[in-house]
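DATA SHEET
Item: assembly model
Revision: 1
Owner: S.N.
Input lines:
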Amino acid sequence: MRIDLNGIPTEVRAVHLADVLTAFGYRGALATALNGRFIPAAARLTTVLHDGDRVEVLAQMEGG
Amino acid sequence: MQLYDVNLSARLLLGTAQYPSPVVLTDAIAASGCEVVTVSLRRETANGGGTNGFWPLLQATGVRILPNTAGCDSAQEAITTAQMARAIFGTNWIKLEVIGNADTLQPDPFALVEAAKVLCADGFAVFPYTTEDLIVADRLLDAGCRVLMPWGAPIGSGRGLRHVDALTSMRGHFPDVPLIIDAGIGAPSQAAQVMEIGFDAVLLNTAVAKAGDPVAMARAFGQAAGAGRLAFEAGLMPPRDMAVPSTPVLGMADLGLGGLR
């Protein structure tokens, strides 16, 4: 299955959103979105991914 | 000054971007005396490699965090970003930016109101980055916003208050709403002017972060905002069209040497 992971086309074997985070070594305080919608941390384990999905994984950054 | 349910004494809010280093940032925060700083979100690098160390240092300062939705250009994008920010930063405060024009970074008032309605209903304390338009301001208050943040000038321009008369009208129109000038401030004198016309606070970033000495500039802005507020509370004299002698003329000697009298 091919998804967009933070804007990069990426081949994944994951079933759920949480699997992607584990497979790519994401850790620490993160927030996730799927196809433009916020996915709370508690829902990552049950959020099923599909081919063509857009996944965003964000962390803290300086801002104005 | 009360912003939502929080009492604050400092009149300056600082952005945290573009500083030479995280240490300079935290030193600037301390020098300014500010109690609220803005932050943002970015794409995380896989394998946890994206941090530059700013977040732990910022947390250690104890300042209150105001996440933003910078860069969003639709209501849904801003809503999703706000929800992600709440999850990461653990606060329901959100500086709501919905940009309508890439050149001016002017707020999109229609999308702004739309997003504000959703976020206020979802329990956020929304700080909307808006214009000085009074009707938009009314709609934002109707949506549930309890603070308004009109722009002084385009973001990063350092031009000061471009529409002083309109902003003064806004102050008069909403006497009980906390009003914060956000963006466009380039010099401490401009921050003082913001406070002298009765605004509650000023929020800026670039003028401090890009100064030759950001820590000294942060101190200057903190003092200017405080001085401007003090002047407002003291009551500024009204301007006059003609000169009026400050030294009394009654009893002045007539030395018989000519002059204007």
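QC remark: Chain B has nine helices and ten strands.
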